[in-house]
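User: I'll paste a sequence; please echo it back and then give the predicted structure.

Assistant: Echoing your sequence first, then the prediction.
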Amino acid sequence: MKRLIAVSVVLASLTAGAYVLPGGSILRRMATAREEKHLSAFRVEGSVIFSSAAVQEAGAALNVSTERPDLQGDGVLSVKVPGRCRFDASSPESSSKVASVLVSGRKRVEGKELPAVSVLVAQVCAILAQDAGSVQDTKLAQEAYLQGLGVDTKRTSLARFGGEVTYVLGDPAEGKPQFWVYKDAFRPARVRYTDTAGTAWDVRFVDYASPATGDWMPRTVEVWRAGQRVLRFTALKADNRSAVPDKLFTP
């Protein structure tokens, strides 16, 4: 209850006396900012850290010991716009690998499925690899997607995330589906929702000013489940110029 009151106070203090753009305008500007990057494909290599309950899940999938608070491995994110995304996770301690692939909304898993990886792929694909052909169409597609998660895109407010001011689309109350957008650059900041099984997810896009990724991809993507961080992917190397093979997304 105290946390809910604190969040409400912060939102109220930020919003008081400030003009807050409507949700449609925020999503349109976000689509415009994304289109200006002219992204058609990209590949990001980095480290992936599983924590909390995901340690046991990742250990079983990758066939490594779980007698540790965190499990670190290698991650590769491959994307072809629009809507083809893949994340590969592996560990230097084992030859086992897992991958989650999403193509036009259809999911495929290689190896044992890791829920946090599937959520990362789903949200990266929907938020960072959305392109419906025009800014207006992309805005409408994004709006429909968020509404499908339960986000009330007509409600907007302000909040702070990572020290930056963000727009919040959705009911500002704690625990409600929300989509956060960095106010100054109109880049995605986080998406919060509850899946059909009743599990609360919070996917966070952090640091668009990294030398590793430039300003087109967040350096870090975090996946939180039921209030605990279960996955953190940090980019060490990124390339948005070379081709990403089609075979990565086919069975």
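The CA atoms of residues 98 and 111 lie 5 Å apart. Confidence is low (pLDDT under 50) at residues 1-9.
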